[in-house]
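Two records follow; treat each independently.
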Amino acid sequence: KLPFMFYKNLTITPQNFTTSANWHENLEIQFCLDGDGIVLLDGKEYYITAKDIIVANSNVIHHMNTKSMVKYSCIIIDTAFCEQADISPSQLQFDSFIKSKKLFDLFKQFNESFSDTENSCRTAALRKLILEMLIELRLNHTVSVNNEITQNHSYERVKNAIKIIREEYNKKLTLEYIAKQVFTDKFTLSKEFKRFTKMTVVEYINNFRCKKASELIGDGLTVNDAARKCGFNNMSFFTKTFKNL
């Protein structure tokens, strides 16, 4: 019934943040609540503080980190809901960095409505507020579609490389294998991957494996079993990599 996913009051510190850049088709809006940090969008860095808004457009590679602390909430809006309103994320591109009292006030109303589980019209109210956010983005924060990114072969190769890593992280992965799967050579892929994610391919693989291992450990697996299931064959290397995150 709800055309979105809402992640509320997330806190990131230098010791607690994901090092894995991500991308997806759905539009994502991030609202900075407190602190400061850096958001990486397609290789470009944006410095954010309280009340700043970040829009991760459709299929944009994004990642957040901080040197101190940043608290934020994010809404990931279902593409089908956007398209029903004739505001298609695949056809439109919005400003990536926004300072907007109106948009932030809509988020505050959304946050209150989300918490009001006794409201018989809660679902309708939330859908209405999401639609109002989309209308505000469409009317006042739309930029031309970035054909240089959406049609860029380098960008597509990096996206496909990330998809391979996320799907095959528990297998033996090499730079040569991934490059072959995305129809390029390892030198080109290394350069392009670093450009868009600020990480090497190997760093991304190891960090993503550690993230998945951490989830398995939280589910009750032993450290050794979790590490092996996520592609680590050397426990000392896993321990060193995990501690460095």
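The next record belongs to a different protein.
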Amino acid sequence: SPSPTLHNSAFEVLGLPHRYRALQTDSVDEQVRFALAAPDFGGASVTIPFKRDIMEYLDELSPEAEAIGAVNTVIPVTKEDGSQKLRGDNTDWQGIRTCITSRLSPEVAAKGIQTALVIGAGGTARAAIYALNVLGAKKIYLFNRTKSRAEALLNVIPGVNVEVLDALGERSDAPPSVIVSTVPPSATTTEDVEAENAVVLSSSILRPEGGVAVDMAYRPAVTPLLSLAKEQPEWKTVSGVEVLLE
């Protein structure tokens, strides 16, 4: 994760006496719970696949985290009696929203996002749907290799028009002007063959008029989705590190 370098550099520049460390784990286990309860705990970032698992160990959620149903930030809050409670928040959607807004073409910005596509069905996909709804997307296509997981997100955020796709190329309306991938890069490919356990991406998902492609993955810098979008001059790309910075 680039997060330790990012945060520790900021702490140094700002003269803050904090340290940011990576805690590698296969589950939200005793080691994680010990870290949350430590007297010098100053907060945490939560990455996939634990953005929902962490929620049961928190005392409260921000309205955004509650609506999204996923947490990527844990903040210790001091109560009136001096004790601490743990608050879960979600900043993923803010990063996604800002990156999309800054790259939308004047045409789309003026007319609004008619359709968007989200790939994946985990906690980050929930944040992407929330961000796109805040941006006023009229319809959000959702695709996941396991369709039942995508269908579970249909009514997670009330009032959002989500349509689950059987295949990426199948849609009931116009092609998306915004695409957000929330799956690992290894889960996608641009090879023109059916890859085992990988979603095949083709230029058919990119509208000729252009749009914005966001990949939430940090590495590689150019994922299959971004590589595909970079071949189209009218498309703007956003890497996961750019969303992280926001």
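Discussion point: The longest helix spans residues 3-14. How would you locate this feature using only the token line?
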